[in-house]
Write the structure tokens for this entry.
Amino acid sequence: WCIDLHPSNGEAWVTSMAENRIYVIDTATYSVLTTIDDLGFDTFGVAFNPAGTTALVSATGSDCATSPSKR
């Protein structure tokens, strides 16, 4: 698991290596807002740029970085 906080809206993006997805969590309510799937396999890292406009995701089963579009 890897967690990064969105720099402007407080969402926590949590990777799940076992499920190959990212959970987007509302940190005020601790509820899952959405999941982001189809990111390759063994998804293990996520990081935002300072503006929060791009999230880079790393996965051992992929040979490229992915920037998932959110919702």
Q: What stands out?
A: Residues 47 and 69 are 14 Å apart (CA to CA). The radius of gyration is 11 Å.
